[in-house]
Every structure is written in structure tokens, then in C-alpha cells.
């Protein structure tokens, strides 16, 4: 089976979040199951710099007024296509934001062009053959099934994966004539959304299957509270909605072989982890207070619960702990954390920004990794943390509730706990969870047992990839049967 995956970011070429990790790991996990994935990604500078040996395979004219060169390359087990449109993708900043942190004003065009190109490539408009299945991700590629259905009248099967429903690609109705779609695609039954254009809405309506990145989140998005205005649309697609928990790339995230950490270790050599803990403290300029080392590795936003970090830091300090924070986001949250670090210079340190190297260092050395998200489709950071023996402390929501077994008295007695959960997700419950973690840390033998249990948890892609494969195979069989009847 040949699957064309169309994404706006993919690790290791370019990454802003978990979407890139999934887009980079899932194809490799599907290959042993007989599914070959070809991934189409925009030709950002960061992408082209990592693919110096790419080979041009063809051109696509008429992409909403633009011409694209399409090149192919392989790297780190991925089969890739780069869509090279310099005027759209060769820019400073990131995939979605400019150097000043603002949305590129023509994001509607940049990702509509990517979607149109993806639809044409899937249909065989380049010398690659047509795809059996198309896999699109989030709003940036959600116009692919819209173009397939309304512009090309194609029934090629499409799976749309929603990594975070909060990001929907909503634009002014003024762009409608420039999308080169028939009027039928622009109405309430497809793209029209409260007087504007909703890219994700179109993808949800036009795809054959909709997946989210955990079963709990698949249920949550059907509610008014977490449906982000699309719960009504998702209710109509309920029979085609599936939740599949993300996995992690066990080759990249492996403490026994990780080249980005000072001292490799495994579940049998946890004592070596202390060297990484010391390296984390040194990097953040903190002395060792001999208490629990808490860390946060996240976007500094309300969704991630980062607005509570400064308040909860006081609880950590009062119990003899320390806190390091790595992330960027809302200016007010960043300022509050800087002020917190100023007030507790030996206990709190903050790094504004993100680097993959620092992420690996933090999970290899911190004692507790905090993830107090108010909603979290799946979450990958808590999975990395468990793999590295950093105990997750999470809000009970979405994929966090499914992947963590709370260290309550019964779970600790049975040696099945893997972290700490709290609910409701508010400062009071968060502080209570911090207190529980600090108290548990005092019994170092029990804490080591908790670490070992967390490290044994299996969140590789094997099971999740099998679920995707079953969906793909069922779609292909149904499509072939329909084609034969026609």
C-alpha cells in the first residue's frame, strides 16, 4: 500500500511541536506492516538545508498562481517530497510565524497551495503513480480532501488526523474566490464557518476517516467544552471518528543510546542518571539543593497550564525542591517566570526558547516533569519523560489521563504507578499534586521503583501503527469494492 502523507512539519527536518514527531515516526513504524509512506512537506529553508542531495522529479504549474518544483530525498528512514515555492516558503522565522512572532499574513495561501499540490500528487500528476491512501494532518493540509472532492471529483480515500482542535485555520471569506474551488465547496456544508472560511472544518467534512491522537480526546472533542466550535461537525462524523494514541520513536528517545545526554543509562543503571541531573542544574545555573528537581518543557500558554507555574513554584521551593522551565509563548507568562527566577535565584531558573538538545538533557536529568495541560489531545512529553525515568505530573485530561497511572496508595502498593495526575486542573489541585510528589521523593527506594515502572511502560509506535494500518486497509478495501461496482 502506498500512502501519501501531507504535513506542514516533520522531524528531523523542521519541528514546532508533536505533529512533527508523529509525522517523522509513524512512516517508519508502518513500513514493517507493508505500508510505504511518502511525505510531502513545504520547502522551508530548514528543510532544503537538510536535503542537499534531493533530486527534482517534476514541476507543478497553476498552484493558485504559483509554480512549484517538487524534489525527492531520503533521510533517516523517511521518503520525502519537498514542495519548492520560494516566494511562499523561503522566509525567515518558522513555518507559521515570522521573525517577530506574528502569523505570516498569507498563511491561507501557503497552505492552500500545499494542499492543492498534495491533491494533485496523490492523483498521479507527477511521475510517481497515484496514492492508495492520503493522510493529512491538522488545518494546514485539510484542504486536500476538499480539492480532491470538489475540484477533481475524486473519491480517493483520505484520513484526516487532528493533533489539536484548537488550531483550525480560520480566514476571512474574502479569500474564497482565490482558492479556485467551486461554489459548492464554499457553502455551509463544507468550508463556510461563521461567515468565514474554515480549513479544518472542510477537512473534517470531506475526509473518509477522522482520527485524533487519543481515544479520550476523540470523546472530548464531541463536547461543547472541548469541541472548540466544531463539536457539531464532529457529531455528524461520529461513526468515522477514531482515537489512536501517539507513540514515540524509541530509537531517538532512548536513554541507553541517546547521544544528546552526558551519561547514557537504562532501567538497570539508574544511578548513572545522577550525572545528567547535575548537568541540568549546571546548565540552568543552580546549586544542588538535594530536593526533587521539577521541570517544565512546554509552550508557555494557558492551554498548557503554564500560567500556573510561577504560583506553584512557591510550593516546590517550600518543600525543598527546585524548578527549571524551558519554553516560550505568552509574554505575560514569560515575564512572571522571569520574576519568579529573580525571587528564587538558587531554586528557579528559566530558559525562554526551545532546543531539541536541551529537551533531551532535561528529561534525562529532572526528577519530575510537569505537564498541567487544561486540554491535551495526546501529549508526547510525558511519554519521553517516562522513557527516561522522569516522573510525569499531569492534569487529568485527554491523552495524559490515558498514558499515566496515578501514584495513589493502591497503585504504589501494587507497583503499577507511573506518575501523578490531578483534577480539576487549577492551581489548588496542582499544588496538591506537587506536595504528593515531594512527599514521595523522600522515600528514595520507592521513588526508584516508580522510575523503573515508568521506564518499563511501552509507548512505541508498534501498537498505534497497527491501528492506523487497519484503518488504511479497511479504507482501501472499501474503495476498491466501490470502484469495481462502478
Describe what is shown at a glance:
The protein has about 475 residues and is α/β, with parallel strands linked by helices. The chain has helices spanning about 20-30, 45-50, 85-90, 105-120, 145-150, 200-205, 215-220, 230-235, 275-285, 310-320, 330-345, 355-365, 380-385, 400-405, 410-415, 425-440, 445-455, 460-485; strands spanning about 1-5, 35-40, 55-60, 70-75, 80-85, 135, 160, 170, 190-195, 195-200, 210, 240-245, 295, 320-325, 350, 370, 390-395, 420. The chain is globular, with a radius of gyration of 23 Å.
Protein described:
The chain is of the alpha/beta class and 486 residues long. The protein folds into two domains: 2-247 and 462-485, Rossmann fold; 270-456, 3-Layer(aba) Sandwich (Rossmann fold). Helices cover 37% and strands 17% of the residues. The strands form three sheets. Strands 3-4-5-2-1-6-7-11-12 form a nine-stranded mixed beta sheet. Helix 4 crosses helix 5 and helix 10 runs parallel beside helix 16. ADP-alpha-D-glucose binds at residue 15. It comes from Shinella lacus. Synthesizes alpha-1,4-glucan chains using ADP-glucose. Residues 2-235 form the Starch synthase catalytic domain.
Amino acid at each position: 500500500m502506498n500512502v501519501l502523507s501531507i504535513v506542514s512539519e516533520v522531524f528531523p527536518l523542521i519541528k514546532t511541536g508533536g505533529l512533527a514527531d508523529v509525522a517523522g515516526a509513524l512512516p517508519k513504524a508502518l513500513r514493517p506492516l507493508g505500508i510505504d509512506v511518502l511525505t510531502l512537506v513545504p520547502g522551508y529553508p530548514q528543510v532544503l538545508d537538510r536535503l542537499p542531495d534531493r533530486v527534482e522529479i517534476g514541476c507543478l504549474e497553476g498552484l493558485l498562481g504559483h509554480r512549484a518544483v517538487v524534489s525527492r530525498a531520503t533521510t533517516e528512514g523517511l521518503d520525502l517530497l519537498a514542495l519548492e515555492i520560494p516566494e511562499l516558503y523561503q522566509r525567515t522565522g518558522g513555518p507559521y510565524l515570522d521573525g517577530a512572532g506574528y502569523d505570516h499574513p498569507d498563511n491561507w495561501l501557503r497552505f492552500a497551495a500545499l494542499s492543492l499540490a498534495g491533491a494533485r500528487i496523490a492523483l498521479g500528476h507527477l511521475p510517481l503513480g497515484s496514492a492508495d491512501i492520503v493522510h493529512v494532518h491538522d488545518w494546514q493540509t485539510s484542504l486536500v480532501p476538499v480539492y480532491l472532492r470538489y475540484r477533481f471529483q475524486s473519491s480517493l480515500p483520505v484520513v484526516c488526523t487532528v493533533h489539536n482542535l484548537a488550531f483550525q485555520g480560520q480566514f476571512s471569506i474574502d479569500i474564497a474566490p482565490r482558492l479556485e474551488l467551486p461554489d459548492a465547496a464554499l457553502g455551509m456544508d463544507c468550508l463556510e464557518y461563521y461567515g468565514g472560511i474554515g480549513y479544518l472544518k472542510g477537512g473534517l467534512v470531506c475526509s473518509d476517516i477522522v482520527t485524533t491522537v487519543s481515544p479520550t480526546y476523540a470523546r472530548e472533542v464531541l463536547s461543547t467544552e472541548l469541541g472548540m466550535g466544531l463539536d457539531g461537525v464532529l457529531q455528524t462524523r461520529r461513526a468515522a471518528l477514531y482515537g489512536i494514541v501517539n507513540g514515540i520513536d524509541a530509537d531517538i528517545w532512548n536513554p541507553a543510546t541517546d547521544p544528546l545526554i552526558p551519561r547514557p543509562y537504562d532501567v538497570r543503571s539508574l544511578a548513572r542518571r545522577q550525572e545528567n541531573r547535575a548537568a541540568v542544574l549546571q546548565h540552568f545555573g543552580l546549586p544542588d539543593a538535594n530536593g526533587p528537581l521539577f521541570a517544565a518543557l512546554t509552550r508557555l500558554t494557558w492551554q498548557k497550564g503554564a500560567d500556573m507555574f510561577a504560583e506553584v513554584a512557591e510550593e516546590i521551593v517550600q518543600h525543598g525542591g527546585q524548578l527549571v522551565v524551558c519554553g516560550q509563548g505568552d509574554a505575560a507568562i514569560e515575564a512572571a517566570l522571569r520574576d519568579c527566577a529573580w525571587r528564587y535565584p538558587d531554586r528557579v531558573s528559566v530558559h525562554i526558547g526551545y532546543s531539541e538538545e536541551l529537551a533531551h538533557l532535561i528529561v534525562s536529568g529532572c526528577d519530575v516533569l510537569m505537564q498541567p495541560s487544561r486540554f491535551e489531545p495526546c501529549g508526547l512529553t510525558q511519554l519521553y519523560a517516562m522513557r527516561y525515568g522522569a516522573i510525569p505530573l499531569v492534569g487529568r485530561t485527554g491523552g495524559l489521563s490515558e498514558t499515566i497511572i496515578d501514584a495513589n496508595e493502591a497503585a504504589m502498593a501494587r507497583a503499577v504507578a507511573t506518575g501523578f495526575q490531578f483534577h480539576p486542573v487549577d492551581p489548588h489541585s496542582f499544588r496538591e499534586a506537587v506536595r504528593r510528589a515531594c512527599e514521595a521523593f523522600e522515600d528514595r527506594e520507592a521513588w526508584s521503583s516508580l522510575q523503573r515502572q515508568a521506564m518499563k511502560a511501552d509507548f512505541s509506535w508498534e501498537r498505534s501503527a497497527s491501528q492506523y494500518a487497519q484503518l488504511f486497509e479497511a479504507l482501501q478495501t472499501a474503495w476498491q469494492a466501490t470502484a469495481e461496482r462502478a
